[in-house]
Amino acid sequence: MTRELITSAQNTWCPGCGNFALQHTLKNLLSDRLREGKSLDDVVLVSGIGCHAKIADYLNINSFYSLHGRAIPAATAIKLANPALTVICCVGDGDAYAEGLDHLIFAAKRNIDITVIVHNNRVYGLTTGQYTPTSPLGFKGKSTPSGTAEYPINPIELLLASGGSFIARGYTRKMEPLKALIKAAVDHKGFSFIDVLQICATFFPAADYYDSRVYDLPASDKLSFETACTHAREWDYNSDARIALGIIYERSIPTFDDRMITLRLSKEVRERALRVFCETRT
Ligand code: SF4
Questions:
Q1: Using one digit for the tens of pLDDT, what is the confidence trace for 109-142?
Q2: Which of 13, 45, 48, 235 could lock 17 by a disulfide, CB 3.0 to 4.6 Å apart?
Q3: Could you tell me if 59 and 6 are in contact, meaning their C-beta atoms sit under 8 angstroms apart?
Q4: Is the Cβ–Cβ distance between 58 and 50 less than 8 Å?
Q5: Atom 6 of ligand 1 has which residue's CA nearest to it?
Q6: Which of 10, 13, 58, 93 to mutate to test the pocket of ligand 1 (most atoms within 8 A of CB)?
Q7: pLDDT in tens, 139-180
């Protein structure tokens, strides 16, 4: 049975927007899943608010359109309610690094088994071009006509400090490596995070800047935490250094959802033991 994975909803992304690359990368991954005989019934897409979030309208898959900055707690709740689900959470840089930053840090700290894909275009596109936490110093937009006066945050460094167990960076103009990254993130048992450099064709067309600086990390190398920190600091979103793409850090640790199941089970075991004890006493 074939399944149309792109919906008939009118697409309102600007021509040249990097969101198309993410949409088609996800569509190709879902198609692969169907070809392998797997169902899409156990996959849920959660989005935030922003240009990126329309992906929930454009992909024919179970989805939940959340509030601004609140996609990660919604995704966390979905995973805890049904741990068998594969939960993919698409968020914007405003969503993840401003309004919902605390949720991102705590999801990494807990190691909840969800995948967070940040469509990082480094600008608020939907509201026509205000600066975000990853806009470079001096960025001129609607709210900062003379340029920003603050440095951007470094999300890779932040996630390393927060205890993330899978931390990667992708680029919308490199779709095949991006697909491999998202597949590895979904397959990772635990919290997986991909910061995707997404071109905003209208308010931050940075393709030339990225094209001349990105390079691929060797796929076979598992990097130490110290080396990952070095790669994270190579580019602080403001300098002219090279930009590493690929899996920057990965480790295997118990997940929050597994721990919660164990706690629930042990509570049930305790309650059953108490019931048996009470029954034998009467
Ligand atoms: Fe894409 Fe930017 Fe247009 Fe939004 S404003 S749809 S991010 S190109």
A1: 999 999 999 999 999 999 999 999 999 999 999 9
A2: 13
A3: yes
A4: no
A5: 13
A6: 13
A7: 999 999 999 999 999 999 999 999 999 999 999 999 999 999
